[in-house]
Task: structure prediction
Amino acid sequence: MRMDKYLWCVRLFKTRTEAAKACIENKVIMHDGAVKPGREIKVDDIFTVKKGSLRYTYTTMDIPKS
Result:
């Protein structure tokens, strides 16, 4: 599943456009680097999302069906 779709699907962002914009603006980081919206995400991936001055770290437990 694409990163922007995953972020929207698990409701970290209200819209998929906002999720893609956060990826483009380097607010989503995985394995020491910024993530593009089209990057495939897998189970047990760890990524960080910056929202304002806060940073949230998440681990993918499962990939949603839709």
About this structure: The chain has two helices and four strands. The longest helix spans residues 16-24. The beta strands are 28-30, 33-34, 46-51, 54-59.
